[in-house]
């Protein structure tokens, strides 16, 4: 722990109580705060006490439910604007840089990155930008350590099995444009995207995806705080990961 982290944690304890970030402290102890699911072994950090649930009901938690409802209601406009962006603003897309790899057949158009909205995207995909801003960013539901982007897998592309960094945020997918032959597997269970609907899962569990269709597959991905984390924990985790990245770089 650096002095900056110690000071940040002390300030949070002083405001919310000595036990307010105990789970974060346990996560940092040897052993990571307790045993983890076998299919979470590849994750760097597991916050103890969160439900070890790979797939979540998108409307099953009060916090993310309004985001889900707003995105699904806006899907027709989001899909139309995505098509216009793909045909007329291809330069806005880039090869997605995952912390493990970079793939040119996995393209991304960012709406939120580096702790803030990507203002350039407001004029390219205005509906998605507006919904994200109103329902996720302003309401502090998006995890500022991560991002939101249109994720486009080109025909024949696949994402190899992997675990993401931690379990204290979860990944929301709005299925924007889905050809036949696509699927996503999380903790051994494979599901298909249904166009206009959302999937929600814990990506600390091993997961993979593929596009076996004849056109690009695009979802809008939003990294939200896990709904079982608390406000003080979110403050502590943001301070912790930000300080780690300052010293070691992203990852």
CATH superfamily of the largest domain: B-lactam Antibiotic, Isopenicillin N Synthase, Chain
Q: Helical percent range?
A: 25-40%
Q: How many helices? A: 6
Query: How many β-strands, per DSSP?
Result: 12
Outline: globular
Low-confidence stretches: none
Instruction: Summarize the helix and strand pattern as letters.
Output: HHEHHEEEHEEEEEEEEH
Q: What does this protein structure show overall?
A:
With 251 residues, the chain is α+β, with helices and mostly antiparallel strands. It contains six helices and twelve strands. Strands 1, 2, 3, 4, 5, 7, 10 and 12 form an eight-stranded antiparallel β-sheet that branches. The longest helix has 18 residues. It is globular, with a radius of gyration of 18 Å.
What's this entry about, in short?
Helices cover 29% and strands 26% of the residues. It is built from six helices and twelve strands.
What distinguishing features does this structure have?
alpha+beta; globular; eight-stranded antiparallel sheet; Jelly Rolls; 251 residues; four-stranded antiparallel sheet; single chain; 12 strands
Itemize the secondary structure elements and their pairings.
Layout: H1 3-16, H2 22-28, E1 55-56, H3 65-73, H4 75-88, E2 94-97, E3 102-113, E4 116-117, H5 126-137, E5 148-153, E6 158-162, E7 169-177, E8 182-186, E9 189-191, E10 198-201, E11 207-211, E12 217-225, H6 231-248
Antiparallel strand pairs: 1-10, 2-3, 3-4, 3-5, 5-12, 6-11, 7-10, 7-12, 8-9, 8-11
Helix pairs in contact: 1-6, 3-5
